Amino acid sequence: MKRSVMSVMIIAVMLFVAACGNSGGSIFKDGIEDYISTTYTLYDTVESAENSDRYARIYQAENRDLATVSDELQNHETPDEMSDINDGKQIFIFDNVFVTLTESEDDPDTTLIEVAEEEFARNNYGPSFFEGYLLASLISNLFGTNWYDSRNRQCNLNPERCYGGYNSAGSYVGKNSTPTIRGSSNRGGGIGFGK
Fold first, then answer.
1. Would I find Signal among this entry's keywords (predicted)?
2. CA dihedral for 120, 124, 130, 134, sign (positive or negative)
């Protein structure tokens, strides 16, 4: 008798979880990082100059322009902050995860999606990465009031340690001429090198 009651309870819990998982307002909704990693193709990684355990992941959305990918992300999860689309780039902040959409230099119908945790963004992006996209006051609230000044000094002293984003010409240290998908024999490059 105890065994059949336990079985019924397990089945009831499984049905409840399955029902929640299929509803639009599920409390079990994947975070933005999980959504991106399961929806788009991993293209490359960029290792942090400060901490080799931290890196940004670059995904590729083929045959999807920037506006389409932007809508897909916002439909999955409402960002805490987001910029307008400007010069083929848009920046989102989702619960301390920075997501940058950039039109591919090779194909405007392909969008590159860079996902970086707050620590990577604070320690690797240069201040110019955010200019024209997110308010300086917002970045100062996240990274500290002296971040712009101290990061500018660091970038002036060591420009090779000041990352300007995956698609920005001249600021991607160690970038391969042809980026490759993770798992191939050529691991990609970056401030450090890909993981």
1. yes
2. positive
